[in-house]
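Records of this kind hold a single protein each, on a pair of labelled lines. With that in mind, the following record should read easily:
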Amino acid sequence: MDRQETILEIAHGIATLTLNRPEKLNAFTGRMMHEIISAFDQTDARDDVKVVIVTGAGRAFCAGADLSAGAKTFDYDARDDDKSSRAGQASPVRPDGTVDYAHEGVRDGGGRVTLRIFDSLKPVIGAINGPAVGIGVTMQLPMDIRIASEAAKFGFVFARRGIVPEACSSWFLPRLVGISRAMEWCATGRVFGAQEALEGGLVRQVVPPEQLMPTAIALAREIADNTAPVSVALTRQMLWRMLGADHPMEAHKLDSRAIYARGRQGDAKEGVVSFLEKRAANYPDKVSANMPDFYPWWRDRHYE
């Protein structure tokens, strides 16, 4: 894909995705949405990618939706750019004026991004370098670990713009920070600093600006250099998807499948032998070819 609003760099097992509209504080657009989704398609497909880092160019992470369309910003039917992006598609508005809310054209672009990140086979680290409001903060929620610069600011500002939280944040945010904190941040719509984000559990660590990327890269290196990619990919999906389980027995059934399947593969043998021989492991299994045969289990109607 021709990248105009993001940069994707891959080196030494780490993919760095940079939101790249610094003159607009990396404000989110439809094109940026497609480029982010495309980037995760690429990182999932490449076995040389072990970890993904997401950050922003310039002084912001992402200042939210691009508001240059003014009053029409969130009125998709009124926006010329949105009409052009949906060329050839029927409108969700029926001839009688009612709306088909199940129509593809109703879907929120931020939600498309967060669902794609949620499905990532590689762990995702957010390196939050500056202001992150609206979609700039909600797109972070399915990232596995968020590290913030002291210059970062966050805001779930939707109620102050006359809309509601998007990007699946009504599912993600209470699970990350609890319902009370989530409701406070969303109901007030206020912008808050990195320290409050740390205290609330939104980010794992706050560091000086010059230490942000080195800290994120060091964490990515620890994952990339020491762990089996298939195990990490499987673990990531196990942890996220078990958030909705209604009993630990669901986790037991899934864990049992995963341990049994992984024990039959080369990674488990290499993991034990390398430990006993006191050497670095060289894991043979590939995410592209060696995911266990019960994966993806959530699509298996017989999983019980």
